[in-house]
Amino acid sequence: MILFHILLALSAATFASADTLIDTLQQNGFSDFASIYQDADPSILSSIDVGSNFIIYATNNTQSAVNSTLSRRRTTSQSQRAAMSSVQNTASSSKKLRFKRQQANSPAAVYESLLSDPEIVNLGLGVNQSLVEKPVGDAGVPNVFAGAGQVVPIVGNDIPFDGGVIRPVASLLEIPGAVPSTLSLFPNLSNLTALLTQSNLTGPVSETAGITVLAPEDSAFAAVNISALTDEQIVGILSQHVIVNYVGYSPLLKDGQVLNTLANGTVTVAVRDSGVYFNGAKVTASDVIVENGVVHTVASLVGSGDGENPPATGTAGRVGLGLKTLGLGALGMAVAALF
Ligand SMILES: *[C@@H]1O[C@H](CO)[C@@H](O)[C@H](O)[C@H]1NC(C)=O
Ligand SMILES: *[C@@H]1O[C@H](CO)[C@@H](O)[C@H](O)[C@H]1NC(C)=O
Ligand SMILES: *[C@@H]1O[C@H](CO)[C@@H](O)[C@H](O)[C@H]1NC(C)=O
Ligand SMILES: *[C@@H]1O[C@H](CO)[C@@H](O)[C@H](O)[C@H]1NC(C)=O
Ligand SMILES: *[C@@H]1O[C@H](CO)[C@@H](O)[C@H](O)[C@H]1NC(C)=O
Ligand SMILES: *[C@@H]1O[C@H](CO)[C@@H](O)[C@H](O)[C@H]1NC(C)=O
Ligand SMILES: *[C@@H]1O[C@H](CO)[C@@H](O)[C@H](O)[C@H]1NC(C)=O
Ligand SMILES: *[C@@H]1O[C@H](CO)[C@@H](O)[C@H](O)[C@H]1NC(C)=O
């Protein structure tokens, strides 16, 4: 009991000695960034209570990216920007502990932000926009994965304030956009973009809440004679690339996980040293955050079978469309002929 009171007193003292978010930003060379919060809806700052364990992804004043990004994206309000940069670090909650156990030794994490504007967040009732933080490259430098395929390095140590920590990043986080506009930013997804339009799937893919899009790169389509397929078959193929009712941020994916697709089929996740695979199709760029979920680009088409065996180690090779994956009826013949 005495110990408890000492701990309580200590933690109270810790909070009392730390400054507010705005003061801490201003005192540490982040005053331009602080102005975003000062201009934002006051409810954002008041959500970041004393002792609430937030992470604030902030850019410092010498990063001209702050001002140039601000002027480039006038249409996005400061409130959205501030909300997207404020994530709840649930590390100390039981939710996070469960989550950590699932991930085994991966330091990657998914954090829910304060961005809840229903105009640009469509993840299901009461679910705010999230972002992914995970190590990148051989050095394992932690990076933040945000909207528009943005991957932002963390460039400094956490700076504590009374509601959590300020985590310095190299540029302001992009607000996640709709699927079509996000795909159009990737030059190697032009075939997918065209085919989604042709098959009238742009609407469902943009508007369905809480999805994971597996976006085949153009090279995946090069292996298939698309003009030999009917519209119906193309719809079948593309629908198999949309996982419904599940936002599969990479830190959440588990080996052997089976997920349902818009085509009413399933895809099975494989997590290997060489990467993550969906029915054998290897993920090339992961965790592109969009309004209604997440996009991962894949190197080959994702078949509808569930029996794929991605490589135990090493690279994928051409495993994306084994005969077993071709559960799309006549399409199976059309595509299999090309392999
Ligand atoms: C950003 O803009 C503010 C106000 O317009 C200005 O005071 C500040 O010096 C600018 N910072 C940079 C890095 O350009
Ligand atoms: C979602 O964002 C709102 C503010 O826009 C905040 O009040 C709420 O606590 C957030 N929810 C979660 C689960 O973070
Ligand atoms: C601002 O961040 C950059 C890295 O993005 C760093 O090189 C620079 O030293 C930082 N400036 C200050 C004043 O901390
Ligand atoms: C496709 O584009 C993305 C983003 O520009 C990139 O990360 C990925 O490596 C590209 N894929 C190939 C095969 O070049
Ligand atoms: C895929 O894109 C290439 C150019 O990047 C184009 O030549 C080809 O016709 C496209 N195929 C389909 C099926 O859209
Ligand atoms: C897409 O919609 C147009 C117009 O409603 C229709 O003519 C076309 O057949 C549709 N295509 C497919 C693949 O459903
Ligand atoms: C692709 O399919 C079309 C229509 O069936 C056919 O005319 C064309 O020769 C095929 N192209 C190749 C390279 O097989
Ligand atoms: C989807 O699957 C359910 C059962 O899993 C089945 O009842 C339904 O007919 C299927 N729909 C289509 C379009 O295949």
TrEMBL record:
| Nucleotide-binding found in the keyword field | no
Give the GO biological process terms.
macroautophagy
Instruction: Report the residue ranges that make up the FAS1 domain in this protein.
Output: 176-302
Task: State the Gene3D superfamilies in the record.
Answer: FAS1 domain
Matching entries from PROSITE patterns are given as: FAS1
Q: Which Pfam families match?
A: Fasciclin
What are its GO cellular component terms? fungal-type vacuole membrane
Give the Polar residues compositional bias ranges: 82-94
Q: Which UniProt keywords apply?
A: Signal
Which parts of the sequence are annotated with region: Disordered? 78-98
InterPro entries per record? Adhesion/Biosynth-related, FAS1_dom_sf, FAS1_domain
Instruction: Give the signal peptide range.
Output: 1-18
**Name of the protein in question:** FAS1 domain-containing protein
Q: Which species is listed as the source?
A: Neurospora tetrasperma (strain FGSC 2508 / ATCC MYA-4615 / P0657)
Taxonomy, top ranks, is: Eukaryota, Fungi, Dikarya, Ascomycota, Pezizomycotina
